[in-house]
Design brief:
Strand order of the largest sheet: 6-7-8-3-9-10
Largest sheet: 6 strands, mixed
Radius of gyration: 25 Å
Number of strands: 14
Number of domains: 2
Number of helices: 11
CATH class of the largest domain: Alpha Beta
């Protein structure tokens, strides 16, 4: 659906996007992650036709942005970071107005209003004045506006910014419901949002794309060592010695449990070990053989937050 090659955008000599290259498959949901100033919004504005690139090629649905800008804009819906709405209009009136501006045939306006109102969960506020709506509902109106003309591509810039936790969950579920029917590209700096909503993630840093893959694969590739946490009832010196002797265990950090009812004799150990093979069967067998008691054992892999921090802070400590 989208193909970007060597995309560059400069502002007064400052490089906002630096030779970015990526592709987005039809029907996919792709998130662009990055710290403030990484180039996320600039990239989305170029994709939406709002900004022209300094250099590079962008094609959407087989059409090049430079030659077919108007036709591309007809095929996409854009939700900017700050949604521009007419606060004095009622929701249904506004969406009907926007449908006519976007060229929706008169015979289809009513059905499109019904469809986007249901999809964006606006049935209860469809007759209300936009200026009297909560921030979450205004965000939904902006999303309905972006969908009213049945675009093939949906571009969302920070779609949950400024919302409360319940509103964020609701908007995220709405975006997930779009999967397959629309191609969605969204920017966010909420890592949990990218993990829960997006099938693929692009991480930007200083205008460059420094990683691109599924959230799980990015975490797996950057994981390195695995951390296992054990809670066992055993003599601490003996347990630490035996655990260190197991193959593939690099480090054992032990200490007493937090005071709790019935916790006498229980200790927590954090083990750093190789990712492969799975060390849990060997650890369980050691505990069984020694006659110790096991209350908890769980593993902690690096997540997208760890990957993001590693990729976007590299070299910062040297400044």
């Amino acid at each position: 659906m989208i193909k970007v090659e060597n995309l560059t955008r400069k502002f007064a000599g400052v490089i906002a996007v630096d030779r970015a290259c990526f592709e987005v498959a039809r029907g996919d949901i792709v998130g662009i992650l990055g710290p403030n100033g990484a180039g996320k919004t600039t990239t989305l504005r170029i994709l939406s036709g709002y900004l022209a690139p300094t250099s590079g090629e962008v094609s959407i649905d087989g059409l090049t942005l430079g030659e077919h800008s108007l036709e591309i804009r007809r095929r996409l819906g854009y939700l900017p970071e700050h949604v521009p709405l007419y606060p004095e209009m009622r929701v249904r009136e506004y969406l009907k107005f926007r449908a006519r501006l976007k060229g929706v045939p008169r015979s289809r306006i009513r059905s499109r209003l019904t469809a986007v109102t249901e999809l964006c969960d606006l049935q209860e506020v469809a007759g209300r004045i936009i200026g009297q709506l909560s921030q979450g509902n205004r965000q939904r109106v902006g999303l309905a506006d972006a969908l009213i003309h049945e675009p093939q591509l949906l571009i969302l810039d920070e779609p949950t910014i400024g919302l409360d936790p319940n509103q964020i969950r609701s908007i995220r579920q709405t975006i997930r419901n779009l999967a397959g029917r629309y191609t969605v590209v969204l920017s966010t700096h909420f890592l949990a949002e990218a993990e829960m909503v997006c099938r693929r993630v692009l991480i930007m840093h200083r205008g460059r794309i420094v990683a691109a893959d599924t959230p799980d694969q990015l975490a797996r590739l950057a994981a390195g060592n695995l951390c296992l946490t054990l809670e066992i009832n055993a003599a601490p010196d003996r347990a630490e010695t035996e655990l260190r002797a197991l193959p593939g265990i690099y480090e054992v950090d032990g200490g007493p449990c937090r005071p709790a009812s019935g916790s006498a004799g229980w200790f927590v150990y954090n083990l750093k070990c190789a990712m492969e093979p799975d060390h849990r069967p060997a650890i369980f067998e050691l505990i069984r053989r020694q006659g110790w008691l096991l209350r908890e054992m769980h593993s902690e892999r690096k997540n997208l937050e760890d990957v993001f921090a590693a990729l976007t802070t590299a070299g910062e400590e040297d400044k």
